[in-house]
Every structure is written in structure tokens, then in C-alpha cells.
Design goal:
- This protein is α/β, with parallel strands linked by helices.
- The chain has 4 domains: 53 residues, no CATH class; 300 residues, 3-Layer(aba) Sandwich (Rossmann fold), CATH 3.40.50.150; 144 residues, no CATH class; 101 residues, no CATH class.
- Helices cover 33% and strands 17% of the residues.
- It contains 22 helices and 25 strands.
- The strands form 6 sheets. A 10-stranded mixed β-sheet has the order 2-20-3-19-18-4-5-7-6-17, with helices on both faces. A 6-stranded mixed β-sheet has the order 1-25-24-23-22-21, with helices on both faces. Strands 8-16-15 form a 3-stranded antiparallel β-sheet.
- Helix 4 packs parallel to helix 7.
- The longest helix is centred in the C-terminal third of the chain and has 23 residues.
- The two termini are 34 Å apart.
- Belongs to the N(4)/N(6)-methyltransferase family.
- InterPro entries: DNA_methylase_N4/N6, DNA_methylase_N6_adenine_CS, N4/N6-MTase_EcoPI_Mod-like, SAM-dependent_MTases_sf.
- GO terms for molecular function: DNA binding; N-methyltransferase activity.
């Protein structure tokens, strides 16, 4: 008998996902005994009992707190009923681009993106307000967040003056919920970089350690933001800004940077070796735990015994060291009863030193060995371990240039490598024909450094305080350099400016257009293919623009007892508006391709070749549904709003039955409505 596959016509969840709910679900899985029967709530008294000795009973503990912290946490937990509406007229290459630019309050936007991008963002960079007393500070409200957002965007400028008694608290209340939500978007290998100055760096460090975990703190990077410190400043002039870095998981390691010519110049070949090398330490530490690698090597030029320094051992195993020494002359292993010397090096009593550890000794008389070694010295191309001072000194090790790879980034980023504030302003002026529409940009080289040590060619990058859109510019530059397909998501509140360019969003979007145009022209000039070459890789310079707005659905506007229309979609909202709200609620990537298809004169929308099919026009028939499930699309999700069915209950039943039949034949189809 065939298994019956049920297809239910369920209601679409019209609220954003609360990331803390998944944590509670994990607790329920780990401790089912602590789940209250009936309600499903977690009994924390029972949980404490189950955890036993792992629960702290002390009332005294370290805590980082401030007025409004609990409210800030609630802000991050409160679901959003808002949506993101597509603005195709402001977008570039809408049909093909995978980049997103979102106009709106980043707190609401971060909530809305939880389902679609949870655990997928490889790098986040933000340059939030520094709380200097005059910065724009996002004024969050626990009530109607969309109305609050509309009020904010009507303000030309808001401030958080230092005379305010809650100066630091207001800033923390703004940052804390946003960082909690940002953490949930980071991939397991993801990293967040946050620019900040001295005003709030200490508070940001504490808040970040609490949210991401102290064991995930990576670095406090000092970025040299200026090449000419002010001489008229009071006190000690500030030459650097902080960039605080956390990883999603502990033990994150950055990619190595390209080596500089200055670094490579240290590698030479004085012995005419085929490869350039530099002199390196032949020893490693912790002799006591590596006693088999603590022994003497006899110098063939002088006959002296050479030992590792105190607490050190030879870097390689003895058989490998013997091979290296045989490159000078013939050697042998011999017990020379040097336990006292080896015990001294290991820092242990002589009776505890390992016995039967032989020395590497000359196998021929000293004079004969010296002649062989002198010939090697004069011939060149010495062995990996060589004798210094023409044979009269100690032993050193060659480290070859081709073995060192790149260089590890440090926590000091000089302006010569990562740009400075004046460079950032010049970048903007070049793009805007000498005008300066944004006061505090960051140089693209700074963000390029972050991309270099964090991302690969297919990474997803996010910036939810995107300002003048330097991050988008830097991502495009990185893609141009290595033919990458990195994508970005930028978020910016459309704050009015006095620059003559409208809002900050207008400035950011225009900056992307102009930077893309310049980069495309550069690519055409430098990458003209020859007859033997193929065309260069596709270079995505477009972006889809979305705007934060209230839901497209009227359901949240009704009160009990009020008569409901069949059509719950707000007047003035389009099928495209509703489509992207459905994609958000279903957790689909907003950059997926959308195609309008037709069957028997009925038009429907297909996302990513059947990942989602939306039938939102009147006139839907069972024949159309049967065509959809039997075409190449073979949809995995189907959305049909209630107004399409109208009063035709039979149509609804027949469509559900058609989808059920498709599911019984191996197609797993989810069906939703509103």
C-alpha cells in the first residue's frame, strides 16, 4: 500500500524568527526532563537540579550591567512583523546581481534577515556611531518599531550629549541588541570587525565579550588613521582608532597576507643555493619533554661539541639531523656519557635524564673531516643546517623563502598598508567630482585588509552601519583582483543629510554606482582578451535595493470581532512586494533569481527554478497547479494567498489534492497561504 503524503494548507508565519527560541529548543533537546508538561516551558529549578555541581550557587559574581540592559535584550528577542519591499527603480542589474542594499533601521532589518541568513555571513564590518556627543544615535522603542523608524527618518540629526546622565547607557542600549542579532548571522568560521574610538572602546569590549564570548575575542587592532597627528591637540594626540574583532567560534585563524618586497629582501643565497634563504634558530623550546632531541653535535672544523641552549632541543629528530650533518662529512652516532650536560640543559636532576641518547660524532679523524667540510664550505650550496663564521662558530638553520608563505597580520595596521582618513576623503571626492557628501568615510584599503584575512572568493559580507558604502566598494575591488564572487549585504538608515545628495542611502547607492563604473572601465582597459584567451569572469557590480516597511498583510491591523476581507493584502502593495515578504518568512535568500511564467494565460512567479512558486493572481485553476508540479520547476514550496481562492472551497480542496498527489510521487511540497 502506498504511503499517504499529507499536504496541509498552513498559514505563513508573519513574524521574524527569534534567535533565542532556537537556544531554548536546544535546551529542550538536551534536558527533556526539565520541560514542563503542557506548556513546553523550561523549568529552571529542574534544570539547576539536573546540572548539579555545574551550577554556581554564589550570589557574588562579576557582571557588566547598565540602566536599560534588560530592555535591550528584549529588543533583540521581540519578533518583527515588518517587511522589505523591493525598489527596482533604484537597483542596478536587478535580475542578475546577488548584492543587497537595504534602506532601514538595522535593528528591524537584522531581525528580518534571521531566517534567510542565519549562520551564513562570513564577515561583518561595522563602523557605528562613536558616541562623541554629536553622533546620530538610533532611538529604539519597545512599542511600534515601524512607527518609531518612521519618526527617526524624519529627524535630520539626533544626538546623545555628554550632559545626558545616561550617556554611555544610551549607546550600549543601541548597540547591544544589534550585536546579539549579528552574532546569529555569522557562519561558524565568521568574524566581526567593529571600528570604535576611545569613547566607547572599553564598553564595547565588555559587551562584545559577553555576546560573542571572551574565548572568541581575536584582537584589538590599532589602525593608524592619520599620517600627520595634530600638534595643537590637548593632552596626547590620538593617532589610532580601535578595531575590535571577535570570531563566531574559538580558535579562529586569519588568512596570511602577501609578503612585502622589504620582507623578501631579507632572504639571500650567500652560498649560491638555488633558493633564497635566511638564517634561523636551529632550536625549539621545552627540552625536558623532548630529551631524545637533546644531544651533542661535533663541529668538523674545530672538533668542539655543540649542544642546544639551556631549555632547548634540536628542531628535528636525530635521524634527520644525522642526514643533514652527513652533508658536511661522514658522521656516526656514539654514546659519550654526557648525562650531566644533558640534565643541565633539560633543567632536571642527572638521575632523571634519559639514558642511551647518543651524540652525532665525526666518523673520521678530525683533520680528514675538516678537509671534507672545508670543501663543502667553499663549493657552496651548504646543507640545511650550517656552521657559522666559516665553520668556527655555532650551528644555524636555513629557512627558505618558498617555505614561509604569506605573513600573519598583527594588531597594528599602519596607514601605509591600510590607508588613512585623508585617503578615504580623497576616494569620495574622486567619485563625486570634488564634492564631499559624507564626512567620515573609511578608506577602502582598510576594509580590503579585513577581506584579505577573512574571506574567500565566495564569501558573504555584511555591513549594517554602511554609511558611504565603502564596504561595497572594497568587495568589488577584491572581486576584481581575484575574479571572486563575493556578495555583500549593506544596511543603512535613510538619514537626511545637508550634502545636497538627499539621504545617506542616496549617497551610498550613488557611490556604489560610480565605483562600479570606474572598476568596470579599469577591467576593460586591463583585461582585454587576446585571440587565445577567454572572456574575464563575470564581475557583479549590481545591487538589489530594498526598503524597510510595514507588512504587506492587513492581518495585524484587525481586532477581534472585526469583519475580515478575503484579501488580506494591503492596497497599493504589489505581487513583488508580497513575494519578497514570503521569501523572508520562508527563509530564502533575497538575491535568488525570480522568473515570471505563464500557463493557459495565468501568470505566476517562480523563484530559483521552483524553490518557491507564488500564485497570487485571480483565475488560478487546478490545471495550472498540475502544470506547475509537472514542469521542470517541480516546486518545493507553493504560496497561494486566500483571495486567490475567493469563495471557491472546492478549488482549494482540489489544489491541495493535486499537491498531495505530487508529494506521493516523491515531491516534497510545502503549501502556505495568508
Amino acid at each position: 500500500m502506498n504511503e499517504r503524503h499529507e499536504v496541509e494548507l498552513d498559514r505563513l508565519d508573519t513574524k521574524s524568527q527569534n534567535p533565542d527560541s532556537s537556544r531554548a529548543d536546544r535546551l529542550r533537546e538536551l534536558f527533556p526532563e526539565a520541560v514542563t508538561e503542557g506548556t513546553g516551558d523550561i523549568d529552571f529549578d529542574k534544570l539547576r537540579e539536573l546540572l548539579g555541581k555545574h551550577v554556581s550557587e554564589s550570589r557574588e559574581r562579576y557582571a557588566f550591567t547598565w540602566p536599560g540592559k534588560h530592555e535591550a535584550i528584549r529588543q533583540s528577542q521581540t519578533p518583527s512583523t515588518a517587511t522589505l519591499r523591493p525598489l527596482k527603480e533604484k537597483s542596478v542589474d536587478w535580475d542578475t546581481t546577488e548584492n543587497l542594499y537595504i534602506e532601514g533601521d538595522n535593528l528591524e532589518v537584522l531581525k528580518l534577515l534571521q531566517r534567510s541568513y542565519h549562520g551564513q555571513v562570513n564577515m561583518i564590518y561595522i563602523d557605528p556611531p562613536y558616541n562623541t556627543g554629536n553622533d546620530f544615535v538610533y532611538k529604539d522603542s519597545f512599542g511600534d518599531t515601524i512607527e518609531n523608524y518612521r519618526e527617526q527618518t524624519g529627524q535630520e540629526h539626533a544626538s546623545n550629549p555628554e550632559t545626558n546622565g545616561r550617556f554611555h547607557s544610551n549607546w550600549l542600549n543601541m548597540m547591544y541588541p544589534r550585536l546579539r542579532l549579528a552574532k546569529e548571522l555569522l557562519a561558524p568560521t565568521g568574524v566581526i570587525f567593529i571600528s570604535i574610538d576611545d569613547h566607547e572602546s572599553m564598553n564595547l569590549r565588555k559587551a562584545g565579550d559577553e555576546i560573542f564570548g571572551e574565548n572568541c575575542f581575536v584582537a584589538d587592532i590599532a589602525w593608524q588613521r592619520t599620517y600627520s597627528p595634530r600638534n595643537d591637540a590637548k593632552g596626547i594626540p590620538s593617532e589610532v582608532e580601535h578595531i575590535l574583532v571577535w570570531s563566531r567560534m574559538p580558535n579562529w585563524n586569519p588568512h596570511k597576507l602577501e609578503r612585502t618586497a622589504e620582507m623578501d629582501a631579507k632572504y639571500k643565497n650567500p652560498d649560491n643555493d638555488m633558493q633564497a634563504w635566511t638564517s634561523d634558530n636551529p632550536f625549539a623550546s621545552e627540552a625536558a619533554s623532548h630529551q631524545g632531541m637533546v644531544y651533542a653535535i661535533q663541529n668538523p672544523f674545530t672538533g668542539e661539541l655543540i649542544y642546544p641552549t639551556i631549555s632547548s632541543h634540536w628542531r628535528y629528530q636525530q635521524d634527520q639531523m644525522l642526514d643533514y650533518m652527513n652533508g658536511w662529512c661522514e658522521y656516526k652516532l656514539e654514546d659519550i656519557h654526557d648525562e650531566a650536560k644533558r640534565a643541565e640543559i633539560c633543567g632536571i636532576p642527572e638521575e632523571d635524564v634519559r639514558s642511551n641518547v647518543q651524540a652525532i660524532m665525526l666518523a673520521q679523524p678530525l683533520e680528514e673531516s675538516r678537509q671534507h667540510a672545508q670543501a663543502v664550505l667553499e663549493r657552496g650550496q651548504w646543507p640545511r643546517f650550517y656552521f657559522t663564521k666559516n665553520g668556527l662558530g655555532g650551528i644555524r638553520r636555513k629557512t627558505y623563502l618558498d617555505s614561509v608563505g604569506g605573513r600573519l597580520p598583527t594588531n597594528f595596521w599602519p596607514y601605509a598598508e591600510t590607508g588613512h582618513t585623508d585617503e578615504a576623503k580623497k576616494e569620495i571626492k574622486r567619485l563625486f567630482e570634488g564634492k564631499m557628501p559624507f564626512d567620515t568615510p573609511k578608506p577602502s584599503r582598510l576594509i580590503r585588509r579585513m577581506l584579505d584575512i577573512t574571506t574567500d572568493k565566495n564569501s558573504l559580507i555584511m555591513d549594517f552601519f554602511s554609511g558611504s558604502a565603502t564596504t561595497a566598494d572594497a568587495v568589488m575591488q577584491a572581486n576584481q583582483k581575484d575574479d571572486g564572487q563575493r556578495r555583500y549585504i549593506l544596511v543603512q538608515i535613510p538619514e537626511e543629510t545637508t550634502s545636497g545628495y538627499g539621504t545617506l542611502c542616496d549617497i551610498g547607492e550613488e557611490r556604489i554606482r560610480r565605483a562600479a563604473r570606474n572598476l568596470t572601465e579599469e577591467q576593460v582597459d586591463t583585461n582585454q582578451p587576446t585571440l587565445e584567451e577567454t572572456e574575464p569572469a563575470y564581475f557583479d557590480t549590481g545591487f538589489r535595493v530594498f526598503a524597510l516597511d510595514s507588512s504587506n498583510l492587513k492581518s495585524d491591523e484587525y481586532t477581534p470581532g472585526q469583519e475580515l476581507d478575503i484579501d488580506l493584502v494591503k492596497r497599493g502593495r504589489t505581487n513583488d512586494d508580497l513575494l519578497f515578504e514570503v521569501m523572508l518568512r520562508w527563509g530564502l535568500d533575497l538575491s535568488l533569481p525570480v522568473e515570471t511564467k505563464e500557463c493557459n494565460g495565468y501568470e505566476y512567479l517562480s523563484v530559483a527554478e521552483g524553490e518557491l512558486v507564488c500564485c497570487m493572481n485571480d483565475g488560478l485553476t487546478v490545471e495550472v497547479i498540475e502544470h506547475i508540479v509537472n514542469t521542470d520547476d517541480k516546486p518545493r514550496r507553493v504560496f497561494i494567498p486566500d483571495h486567490v481562492f475567493g469563495e471557491q472551497n472546492n478549488l482549494k480542496l482540489n489544489i491541495v489534492d493535486a499537491l498531495r498527489r505530487a508529494s506521493s510521487e516523491g515531491q516534497e511540497i510545502e503549501l502556505r497561504t495568508v
